[in-house]
Design a protein that fits this description.
By secondary structure, the protein is α+β, with helices and mostly antiparallel strands. The chain has helices at residues 2-20, 31-41, 52-66, 106-113, 157-161; strands at 78-81, 86-89, 123-126, 131-134, 143-146, 152-155, 174-177, 182-185, 193-197, 203-207, 220-223, 228-231, 240-243, 249-252, 260-261, 266-271, 277-279, 283-287, 292-294, 301-306, 313-324, 328-335, 340-348, 352-363, 369-375, 381-383, 395-400. Among the domains are: 12-66, no CATH class; 220-252, no CATH class; 283-400, Jelly Rolls, CATH 2.60.120. Helices cover 14% and strands 35% of the residues.
Length: 402
Amino acid sequence: MRLLLTSAILALSICELHAQGTPPCTSPCTKTQLLNDVQTQFPDNTVGAITPSILRNFQNNLINSSMATAPVGAGAFTCYVGTTGLLGACTSALGIALGGTGATTQPGAAAAILPAPVRAGDVVYWTGSSWGTLAGNNTTTGLLQQTNSGVPSWVSGSAASTLVFPAPTRAGDVVYYNGASWLTLPGNNSGTQVLSESAAGVPSWVTAAVFPTPSRAGDVMYWNGTAWVILAGNTTGSQVLTENSSGVPSWTTPGTVTSIVGGQGLSGGTITTTGTLALNMTFFANSLAADVPMGTIGTYFVGPSVSVGATGTWYASGTITLTDTATANVACRLADSAQIIASGGLQIAANSTQSFGLSGAITSPSGNITISCRNTADTTGKILFNFSGNSKDSTVTAIRIQ
């Protein structure tokens, strides 16, 4: 029995040694070493057994080889160490190609991203595609300017002097631009003054306008040519403000209308405190009492007519009615004996009747105001008085308007 147990233990030991084969690597292990251990430490069961010791040893090697042994904190990166392919804590900066700066300090990181400075005062600016450097100013005091393309430069010396304010000399100095440079207008030192400016933009001090103090309600302030003065408000009934030819105002009792006389075209009056006026325009009207034949070609035949006298301005208007047994052209005019007020004409179809009107104004008529017509083609036309049956078919009216 003991002999059999001893033989079994010996056989197990032989199997274990056979399973282990080549000794396992010592961690940390490379990828190649770990793959070799998989082949030598894990044979088929037909060849040798796999013991817990083998599994623990391989698992420890795997963990120690795949994880950094010294992490530096949350968010720290793990890097490959050397050329072995093993992982470990990063000891160098992450390169720009991997999203880093390739530096471990702030100045180093800035130098990796931005162009290198060359002297104190260098200014970094974006060119539109990359960061560029404007070398710091090394002349006299300079100002930074920029073109409309965004390119900066230093303005110094005489160019910068036009952009620098001049030194003040006393309290109240005013700086203004004369079109080429900044200049100083010395502060006022001669009493209360105000700043004025010429049409050319040149400022100066002028004596301030001082308004007088009003004394009662209704006071009026006016300029007498040298200063502002007050005209005391009116206290003696309703008055109006008038001004003489020298521009001096004064209060004046308004005038009153004592009478109104009716003139041309009005009746009534005279109005003093009471009375009335009414429109009363003189007018004359007349109509033909019989037809007027136009028996001669080209001769004007008088139709309706009114007599208004030789004075005044009159508004005259009228209607004329015409007929002819043949097609005819007829011309008519509204006139006195010397002036044509209005004229017109029409073509009458054979055996038809037509009417039209004329109107206008005339001053100081030299005779009766009439409407006259002539036939330009035949002798069979007529001026009608009663085609409508109302006996007013050819009528003229005159109203005095002045």
